[in-house]
Design a protein that fits this description.
By secondary structure, the protein is of the alpha+beta class. 41% of the residues lie in helices and 23% in strands. Strands 1, 2, 3, 4, 5, 6, 7, 8, 9 and 10 form a ten-stranded mixed sheet that branches. The longest helix has 25 residues. It starts with 14 loop residues before the first helix and ends in a 9-residue tail after the last helix.
């Protein structure tokens, strides 16, 4: 093992590598009091030899530098820089990480996420996220940890058809976890506010309503202004509960052609001139606004339907030549709740925010943050480790976007900043996180 003690710097690093961990530590302490939050987590061990905060900070730092497994995390915990950062002089074994993750309290972790998100809002970090003055939350579900063998008591299951070694189709049981996520989306900083694991035998709407009720209680009714959802949620009971019980307007994609409101909106706009025409990112956007339609028997109140047709020219290479091809997309959104003062262009812009939860959350978390990897398959550990991943995701992106000059100036990507933090762990001067 190389000597990483104070006074020894065994490998050369540039100034950016040297300072990134120190800047991340300072930013986390100053803006979110992370050193105090870390001391508030408990794991139920009666007389722990290794402090809970040291284990939790190791798990958090492991997510920041993208260490997917406990065995590798065990090796990284031998670094003097790492030990100074978490406040424990010694190796932390992979068994300890698994044992503690089974006993962490997800309620405490959710409370930490709420604290961090409230601090971000008070610091005006979400001002750029507003669309026509509205703060929008997107809901969507995502599957993780699919397996044909490993399962726990909270796993969902389904029967799938596949081919065996002889090429014959066989049926088998697949196990997986699925959560409904709520993301506050924006052009700069997007954060996951909360998530709710789905239970056996229920649909996404049930988990989404459970999530929204808790968010109203924990965040309050004015933390965000409306909810954007996919067509899966475009049902009368969901719209009625969110608009009437919880008090938030809803914008939902309307794809079900069997709905009378869908057919009626198409009939009323057929052959009519658009009520509004705007330009968005080089696209000609034609908008038809249809107010006061009846949605269904389960939601008899009037809804508003916004139909959109987007046309643009796309340049692409075919063989050895560049060709220009005309493209077109058609959308229909249903608006439930009090959004009458906002034109169709605003509804269109808000509706398109739903894609950010797939790109900025699921896409990035899956590609770069090992979202589909389960480090420890246990009912409590799955939720606790997912919360730690989300906390690390929020802290790192807030640091890079709101504080990091290199990212704002376009001189470094998220991946490069993460690598600089890791290199400073290997080669930088020891940084003591929990002192003072």
């Amino acid at each position: 093992m190389p000597n990483f003690s104070a006074g020894a710097n065994p490998c050369p690093v540039n100034s950016a590598d040297f300072s990134q961990l120190s800047q991340f530590v300072t930013y986390s302490r100053k803006c979110f009091h992370l050193h105090l939050l870390a001391g508030s987590f408990t794991d139920g061990r009666p007389q722990p030899e290794i402090p809970s905060r040291a284990v939790w900070l190791s798990l958090l730092l492991g997510e920041v530098v993208h260490i997917p497994g406990f065995l590798q995390l065990q090796e990284e915990s031998k670094l003097v820089q790492w030990q100074r950062w978490v406040g424990y002089k010694g190796k932390i074994s992979h068994d300890t990480f698994g044992y503690v993750s089974e006993r962490l309290d997800p309620v405490q972790l959710r409370r930490a996420a709420i604290w961090i998100n409230r601090k971000l809002k008070r610091g005006k970090a979400f001002e750029a996220n507003k669309v026509n003055g509205l703060v929008v939350v997107s809901l969507d579900a995502n599957e993780e940890f699919c397996s044909d063998h490993r399962c726990c008591e909270d796993c969902l299951s389904r029967e799938i058809t596949c081919k065996n070694a002889e090429g014959h189709e066989v049926k088998k049981i697949q196990y997986y976890h699925k959560q409904v996520y709520a993301q506050l989306s924006g052009p700069r900083l997007s954060v996951i506010l909360d998530f709710e694991p789905m239970r056996r035998g229920e649909e996404e709407c049930a988990g989404a309503l459970r999530l929204l009720r808790r968010m109203r209680q924990k965040y309050g009714p004015r933390f965000f202004d409306l909810v954007v959802v996919d067509s899966w949620y475009a049902g009368g009971p969901f719209l009625k509960t969110v608009t009437e019980e919880l008090g938030w307007p809803v914008i939902a994609v309307l794809k079900q052609e069997r709905f009378e409101v869908h057919q009626e909106a198409l009939a009323l706009t057929r052959g009519q001139k658009p009520t509004q025409v705007v330009e968005r990112d080089g696209r000609r956007v034609e908008i038809w606004n249809v107010p006061s339609l009846r949605f269904s028997d389960t939601y008899p109140g009037p809804v508003r339907v916004v139909k959109v047709r987007e046309r643009w020219t796309q340049r692409q290479r075919v063989g050895q030549e560049w060709v220009h091809e005309q493209k077109e997309q058609n959308w229909i959104w249903v608006v439930a709740g009090d959004l009458d003062g906002y034109k169709g262009a605003a509804i269109r812009d808000i509706g398109h925010l739903r894609w950010k939860i797939e790109n900025n959350a699921f896409g990035e978390l899956t590609q770069h943050w090992h979202l589909t990897h389960c480090a420890h398959h246990h009912p409590v550990a799955v939720v606790a480790l997912l919360w730690i991943k989300i906390l690390a995701f929020t802290l790192f992106h807030a640091f890079a976007i709101l504080h990091g000059k290199l990212f704002r100036l376009g001189k470094a990507t998220f991946n490069e900043l993460r690598k600089q933090i890791y290199r400073s762990l290997l080669c930088g001067w020891p940084v003591q996180f929990l002192s003072g």
